[in-house]
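User: Hi! I'm working on a homework problem where we have to compare a predicted structure to a textbook description. Could you give me the structure for the chain below?
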Amino acid sequence: MSVTVIKPGMLSSFQDRGRDGYQHEGIPAAGAMDERAHRLANALAGNSGDPATLEMTLLGPTLRFDAPACFALTGADLGATLNGRDIPLHRPLVARAGDTLAFGARPAVGVRGYLAVHGGFALPAVMGSEATYLRSGFGGFQGRALAKGDRIALRAPLDGHGLDALQAALWDIRAYLPGTLGGQRRGAIRFLPGMHWEEFSAATRQAFTDAEFRVSPQSDRMGYRLTGPALSMSRPRQMLSEAASFGTVQVPAGGEAIILMADRQTTGGYPKIAQIATVDLPALAQSAPGQALRFQLISLDDAQRLDAGREHAFMQLQEALAPLRALLAPATRKPQ
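Assistant: Happy to help. Predicted structure tokens:
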């Protein structure tokens, strides 16, 4: 009743929505880079709550299902196949014991795909979360990315009976996917003024909203370093370290901005020019090294309205997927 790793892919780790409540103790939140895709995968696999999904980067893994399972794929299109046949994103699918899930070439758009299984993967919670924090080696599966030969247990494999009928019934379920959950590529990443916005020079504030930046190859789950116009404060000054947030744009002395991402440190002492709007963090997380970025200033009211709209869309989707969960409940193998 597990999934076996035949090939691990470039970087495949289990992530949920992050480890809340421990930053004051120096424990980073971690969690999915593209929270929208993570939540969407869980919804389409018939899950409630927040079980970890497998976050896959650029080159996905090759996995063998050792027990039947319902699964769903979201995020970047990594060219998924099941037993060599192309399979779609954004659909609940059925795998049989012995089936092989593999991924093809680098995606044309995006960099991270997400795999959810119904019932979730059987991972231990560490400080209330199944998220992998790679730098310190805890959470997820043994605190690391997947490796060849790993076997990850499933919490709720299917019982193996009537799988053809179940797949047909799942395929007939129609749920409208609102545009705010679809993951369209944006022309500009929206942001709010950071805590020190007014302390940056007028030329720097203008450049941040008008100029083009690129994601540096020296970027990872901890932060995206940007190349572009040098950014500077009107008058340099010493600053105390403050709590770090997902999407905070810090500017070190060299003038190259760094956007803090999911594996960010708990505190930072660089000036903060901007805060990326929560609704656009998924689009940012799907940006590849070398990709051009532009930034668009919005108000706090607009950011809150956009975030509320996304949450409402998720609520509507979960309601629309009630028939999916009803189909899977009797098909799930009961714990021994």
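For your comparison, note the following. The longest strand covers residues 69-75. Residues 212 and 294 are 5 Å apart (CA to CA). Good luck with the assignment!
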